[in-house]
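Subject: complex prediction, re-run

Hi both,

The earlier run crashed halfway through, so I resubmitted it with identical inputs.
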Amino acid sequence: MALSEFELIQRYFAHIVPSLQNISLGVGDDAALIHIDDNCELALSIDTQQTHTHFPEHAAPQDIAQRAFRCAISDLAAMGARPLCFTLALSLPEADEHWLENFSAGLTQVAQEFSCPLVGGDTTRGSLSITMQMQGSVEKGTAIKRSGAQAGDVIFVSGFLGGAAAYVELLRQGTPESEPVDHARELFHADYYQPLPCIALGRAIKQYATSAIDVSDGLLADLQHICDASGVKAILNVHSLPTRPELQETFTQQATTLALTGGDDYQLCFTVPEKYAHNVIKLGEDMECPLTVIGSITEAANGEAIITCLKQDGSILDISTLANTGYSHF
Amino acid sequence: MALSEFELIQRYFAHIVPSLQNISLGVGDDAALIHIDDNCELALSIDTQQTHTHFPEHAAPQDIAQRAFRCAISDLAAMGARPLCFTLALSLPEADEHWLENFSAGLTQVAQEFSCPLVGGDTTRGSLSITMQMQGSVEKGTAIKRSGAQAGDVIFVSGFLGGAAAYVELLRQGTPESEPVDHARELFHADYYQPLPCIALGRAIKQYATSAIDVSDGLLADLQHICDASGVKAILNVHSLPTRPELQETFTQQATTLALTGGDDYQLCFTVPEKYAHNVIKLGEDMECPLTVIGSITEAANGEAIITCLKQDGSILDISTLANTGYSHF
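This time it finished cleanly. Structure:
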């Protein structure tokens, strides 16, 4: 599209939000927040996945179901919300019973894993498209928004980056799906189809984090959303980006680009005041969840909410030269 | 599809609902009900509209937006819920700015009419598809479900039936959209694209109604859902069906079929214990909302939750001979 998704939403839809008392947070964050009672807010997030854009045409129905659910629930993780339930709008070209059985099996498994039941839906005939809306709840006033990052904060990211994009890259290079699977490919496949939404982590860091986002469009794109919403600048230490050894081995030169711009990792990127950084590191150790400090937040000089990427030798990486792998089309 | 939507949902999705304390009502009613606090429940309903299935390819974007919103919010009316906010997942083949401007204008207008703001969404590239989820709230334990109808209840329907189906029928007969518009066609067009979701009516009848559904698939199909969910039988007086004079004039013989099986009217069909029928009639008069008694509920002999249609002379109309116009494809 000529317009980015972000521009399109800002221009045509962001204003359809009359200022109502019960809307705590509208269009433009990971989830909307609705005031429910004195104790709790409802977090809502809707996500669509389509053939060719979000998965290849012949992806396994279990994988499609798992991925759609995991990507959708990840927005709740980024708000520090607890999953409540989900709804499903499913568009299908035909009612293929074998496909439906496997899709249903994948969905049942992941819904049970997150104790997040399906409560309603709609089925229509059309090209394959899966829209899920996640409902979550969060203690009033404690949700982690994109807009709270401040100069002096350190930037954390969870898990490993670039694995999902590596899978997409392997497919793009034409490695057939049926080829004998090696260890790295198996890892990247799981990174892509079975990302681990950081629900528990989001709940745990809520007390320290000033902002958070889930890495769905790619680290640079998503961190940029935090910078824009918070009106701050980010310094990113490129050599600190957490990647699997398998990513370095398989892609060498390209690994950094995949980690910076590859979407679909669904890790959490969040900011924490420096004085709490050690609490967060301790928390990650206790949860056996890898957490890495990848940079810091500074004031936006002249209001420029930009990201500066530093290489290990202190020189600046020109990010305009990176091919954007953040939005995949199969 | 070989499977009906209802069968498909029952077979593959109805079980993905672990029994959780906070889910008051899951898959299979107009909306799901989520327990929020001691006073209120959240009503959730998700709906998809697609080109060719729900509107013709060149329908005006304002009309598409209005219709999608009105159809989606109608499910809240059928539960007696108050609209809270909505989300939008929009799939577009291209970012046509003229189309988007008009779609946005139509959506803004109708969202304001119902004081129901857009709080979040997702846009993807693909064939045109509009999924909206409506969030509503309802006082705890007072939502009108499909399952409460009892022998001795009378059956009401609001407004007029068959108008939306008449518009679809005119298109099917090949009357060009551009033809000089006569009064009847204008009415049917409005019935189709601008149905009037009965939010206020749903709120008002809540104290009397034992069951309710909005007429989206056609009166027979939707009343059948009430019979199935409640385990009762319905006697429908076909000569009592409320239709516009214009429907009779334009379609004569076919008018009854359109009123019985034509979907997309988004009127409320609901049941009320006989002793409260006069209260409901009074209520309709006060609200200037036409309400018609169209039949009654009896016990389901041998558990057969069927509908019997009586003609004015007391003979039975064989509904198996009616062409189903309840699910339209353009």
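The first strand of chain A starts at residue 23 and ends at 25.

- K.
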